């Protein structure tokens, strides 16, 4: 399957990357590991004028401690991050979500930045141009309808990053650099909740750093999938706890993760969070396994993840 | 036949594996020829529409485009395996009948140019109402997909033996259940590809195929070319599983483009095209009614099975019959009625599959467990009670000549401690058993037999020439092993010319389970004939009796006085001197009732012999998520004498993946005629981490007719592994399933229904 | 579209081409230097049949742009045998019967090689986890896992 035509540029630093973007008049696209992007290009779901390769930028590849944060460069691969000395000890939810991502080979190519900025998915979206043309374009392709839920007003595509959930549970924030300068936002704020365009990134912005508060947490990641590797989550739940308080994040359903604070650690409190997540999750028939089933599983996996996170804390 | 075997029966390294581990093995898409063009196909975006016109003009104007074709460039000859099923215009001019159907094609200097040209082809369609579910397609007033088939009923196989109604009324226990199963994807790793090269009036073709001769014959019909001018050549095949048996639209497309352009053409389908536009597996709904006597004997079976046939006939009559036959070859049915309906829908083309019929077979097996339980019998006893034995005749009059069914049941159940585990189920755990028989070959007229030609070369090496084809299961290595054994030379001294229609004689192909029993038998006979000639000269030269001569390690020698010996190469040279080189032919034609016909006369001897097998699965179910894991899987197989036990094990292990674990995850998903998972991401081929701990047991028996006693190896597990899983789930949940695959959502439904029923 | 000059080492030879910026490594290997051992089975990174090793890392070459590997050192299945001797993994795949249709084999062997290069003595669990990166339709994986373990044990015992 051949790629559409585009130019290739390699950036040596962030400023150069942004300059290349500006020169492309907004039609270029940043490239890291490519494991999410290249298939989208092959399917003609994205037809940029140029790829701006960020892999040659050394500062995007480092993991360091700055103040009270662990700072992770977005071009660190999932495999490198998983095997980093502090991750397993300090951030078990993240370790588990990294380990549950796709398969080892793709973990070695895929980057944490690319994993977070992966596009949302739908069985009727991730298809060839011919397939999609035959079916008719949906909201996410610039059309006027949803092919899954007739008469729906929104796009229900699923955000399938495993690791966004664990990073959210760890209260991570991200630093962005773009033509208009730098900014730092909470990771939650990265999500637009609109499946058509799932991120709040401004044109030309590059994700430059992840910040995780450097505190030892307990946690767990639960993933619903059919096969035990390669599969995207049909539902993911990450829980991280620090000092009797925690966060629960539910994803893989809909265009943005759901985030809940966990304060009441009694049995009733846990059930309540799980129940609330179940109520708020709105799966539709846009992936494998039935929507009703995935909704039920929100409750089950949320409780499981919380219980494991608590158990680990003891 | 020799009894003291040196090579047959040994775990030998397959002859094809060196090329494959070094990356040198060539598959169709690897081929390159001077001036070769790239082909691309324009496909139907509609499930059902009248074609009003196709305009190729603009496409032909794109620089670099060398040919463009549509159905108006063909002879309009339709394909069908049987005369009465010829309904598939592989480039249609009247209507399109499924999304993804081949409509037009171009050949250009590169892929980009070809894609550009495709986008300029104009096709005018008049959309027609479409129908996607067989139950709806059979209703009066449903959209008619082919004029010739009323109510879209493509094939009706009707079998009626004994008096079913009477037996049902006399039965102690009668039960009727309906089982559904989604069709699977073959998901062979190699996407379909064809290289066609037309020059000087001859068309040479390479493509993954399971029978070069039937492929060439079909193409010679479609192209109205003499058969000898259509030459299908040998090439490695990246998996078939039944899906490469028939001629494919791509074959016609590449051939026409090459003829038109006068240049070689390569058509390599994308993974998505391979899924939407080559053959798929039938979805099915099976209603199984069984009458049993008080002692657990099956008295009658009454079946109504509906197969979703997709848009065209394909192997229709065979596909509509096989699930029934492999089951009746396994168990005794004094009275049986089978109504199999293959129904057209506006979905992709369907073919036979190595695991074909899981709703029917797993349904039968699980229902039998339930009925047995009611009668106080466990799955082992009820299967032994009803299983066929050597010398018996099936309901449709096939004699079983050798049968290790009981041994496979006994071994598999002993190894797994089956009876105890089945009786004392603990929460979320289950064990299940599936049995089946497989015919080794089936009636294919004069193509049912195989012929081999062997010549001894002047260095003492041998060359085999046979039509036998290898789709990855190891057929090539198998016949080299057979020749090596008989001719007394190592495997590396045996060269193979095979699966080339110009050089080789007819062979039934690798989709009929006949490679070991028929193809290898022809090789055996040819080599035995050559051996006789070698032995005669050696005996004369060494001054001993012919009966005293043995061949081994490239030597001919006296068994009594091994010091008397000579190189086989000397014998060969001596034969050249005598003007009578050592060449021989061998033909094997199985004893089959050739009056037998799938629809009009469904009785008589089906095949030369049958193989048998038993699978046992142990499952665990997560009660909250419904997710099944399979910690252990045990398979016992009577394949006659295994020629290469390692290869037979490989077939069994692959079957456990493709049929067994598939039962918890594999299905094609459809929506309005669109295939939703035409890829390797959302179509779930099980991975290494999804596999159980496997134990394979080969129950050797010696088939009186098979080469060194061999029969089909592996397919039995492909057709009983799903039963073992499904029965194990039924055992764990205490209730029958109604739909396969047993994905977590379906399993949770079963558990919740059960809970609800208790309350 | 302008072509880009790219040079890299493949199987210990330096090669240089003018490539299309949107050319994948898999296309370059197969079409320009006839290294046809790497297969396109899905083209979307799902199956691993196109796996090659780039600077020690196993990559799905269908997801890599050729310009991205400028200056890299690449090993494909064709580069495993040295001086006429097969790599222990190649021998193990043959001896253990881990090869059937062969279409996934190159990718399987390259994935396994990258594993053994970073972990000389993997446990069976580790082997299964790594090999779950690749899809095989024929074998049920049992003999593939056995072959990788066997190759590891032979390499270890040979020092």
Structure commentary:
The complex is a heterotrimer of chains A (314), B (759) and C (159). Chain A is α+β, with helices and mostly antiparallel strands. Helix content of chain A is 32%, strand content 21%. A five-stranded antiparallel sheet of chain A has the order 4-5-8-6-7. In chain A, strands 9-10-11-12 form a four-stranded antiparallel sheet, sandwiched between helices. In chain B, the strands form seven sheets. Chain B has a seven-stranded mixed sheet with strand order 3-5-1-12-9-10-11. A six-stranded mixed sheet of chain B has the order 7-15-14-13-8-29, with helices on both faces. In chain B, strands 16-24-25-28 form a four-stranded mixed sheet, with helices on both faces. In chain B, a hairpin with a 6-residue loop joins strand 24 and strand 25. With 759 residues, chain B is of the alpha+beta class. With 159 residues, chain C is α+β, with helices and mostly antiparallel strands. Chain C folds into two domains: 4-79, Ubiquitin-like (UB roll); 88-157, [2Fe-2S]-binding domain (DNA polymerase, domain 1), CATH 1.10.150. Chain C has five helices and five strands; from the N terminus they run ββαβββαααα. Chains in contact: A-B, A-C, B-C. Chains B and C meet through helix 1 and helix 18 of B and helix 2, helix 3, helix 4 and helix 5 of C.
